[in-house]
Amino acid sequence: MKHIRREVALFAAGGVLGLCVDAGMAQALVGFVGWNVYTARVVSFLSAATFTWWWNSRHTFAHRDSGRGARAEWLHWMALMAVGAVINNGVYLLVLQAFPGLRPWPAVAVAFGSAAGATANYLFARTLVFRAPKTLT
User: Fold this and answer.
1) Which has the closest alpha carbon to 130: 52, 80, 67, 85?
2) Do 66 and 76 touch, CB atoms closer than 8 A?
3) Ramachandran area for residue 69 (φ above 0: left; ψ -120 to 50: alpha; else beta)
4) pTM for this structure?
5) Which helix or strand (DSSP H or E) is residue 47 part of?
6) Could you list the pLDDT tens digit for every one of the 137 residues in the chain?
7) What count of Cα atoms within 13 Å lies in the side-chain half-sphere of residue 91?
8) How far apart are CA 108 and CA 49, in angstroms?
């Protein structure tokens, strides 16, 4: 149980750092480079997801193995994080549909979406990417 708590804490730390990469990159591309918000968001998401792959492969799941080379592992990670993003945004929309009174408070729906997306991403990472303990060779 202690091991899982450590993993969850490291995964959360990587998520917060990834959020900083995501938001910072989007803000910089829009504010300083003049990109539109949609193009900037694609680049910021890819940057943040790449950062979180690096973080989690080096820290959170350093004791686990994906059984893939770095490129294949990264591609698998990116695909699963995209599914997590769909879950995040889907829950956000569902909460706003189910509770129209929350429309003036979208941060509440964002929190529910983020929690659902983060949970899915952790489970995907733990069971589908870094699924096996590393063996000593």
Assistant:
1) 67
2) yes
3) beta
4) 0.87
5) helix 37-55
6) 788 999 999 999 999 999 999 999 999 999 999 999 889 989 999 999 999 999 999 999 999 999 999 999 999 999 999 999 999 999 999 999 999 998 888 889 989 999 999 999 999 999 999 999 887 65
7) 19
8) 23
